[in-house]
Amino acid sequence: QLTWFLLINNMHLSSFASRNYLNYVTEEMINPERNLPLAIIISMPIVTIVYVLTNLAYFTTISPRVMIETEAVAVIFGEYHLGVVSWLIPIFVGLSCFGAVNGSLFTSARLFYAGAREGHLPSALGLVHTDHFTPVPSLIFTCFLSMLYACSQDIFSVINLFSFFTWLCVGMAIAGMVWLRWKKPELRRPIKIFLAIPIVFVLACIFMIVVSFWAAPFECLIGAAIILTGIPFYLLGYKWKKPHIVEKIIEIFTLFCQKIFMSVPEDK
């Protein structure tokens, strides 16, 4: 029961994950000091209302027994109300998934791009397309990592694994911001919120991490191991003074990526 509680919570919280996407692309936003909080304030209530109304519609149409037994509640709902055009439900579900993946790829690739720009990752990931100004190598790398997740035959284990290190990393990031608010209050903060909000969020992240370890310790240990692999990569890629031959290989690979993906380094 605890495992299902964790899984359901992770899936529901992932439904609102778009609140976090715009944080990755603030450099590309117009007037982010105004538009970032405005986008969150507008989108979150809309998503909440839509999800609540959708679930109310399910409960008024489908009995609890059928809802538990079926693997696709929306399909049963469509067959009951739409009849011969119930095939529209799977199409719209697919389009919704496509939109979610598009938003995730669009923003997550910026993480690798920013890391490469700061010298923490190979410089090839810091290239941008000459015409579209998108980090194409970083997008390709993100797609490759996504396909690795798809190799698993147990999607629920993947959800638990991904959710664990997502909440861990996000919680640590927000905790770092709280620490900076305390230690360095003089820093300029274009967007500033009431301190109790990030503290409550960090506590929620701790709760999700503890419950994840309790319900799925094996997946959480794998997630912790994946996170720890970043330490040797950081030491080798950033702290280690590379020999000339290694720097030459990286330079050749970066040049190869520039030619293949029609990309160049960002102007300083």
Can you give a write-up of this model?
The model has no long low-confidence stretch (mean pLDDT 82). The protein is built from eleven helices and two strands; from the N terminus they run αααααβααααααβ. Strands 1-2 form a two-stranded antiparallel ribbon. It is mostly helical and 268 residues long. The protein starts with a helix and ends with a strand.
How would you summarize this macromolecular structure in one to three sentences?
The protein has 268 residues and is mainly α. It is built from eleven helices and two strands; from the N terminus they run αααααβααααααβ.
- Total beta strands: 2
Straight-line distance between termini: 53 Å
Question: Could you give a short account of the major beta sheet?
Answer: 2 strands, antiparallel
Q: Quick check: average pLDDT?
A: 82
The protein's oligomeric status is single chain
User: How many H/I helical runs?
Assistant: 11
Broad shape:
globular
Reading side by side through the largest sheet, how are the strands ordered?
1-2
Output the keywords.
11 helices, 2 strands, 268 residues, 72% helix, mainly alpha, single chain, globular
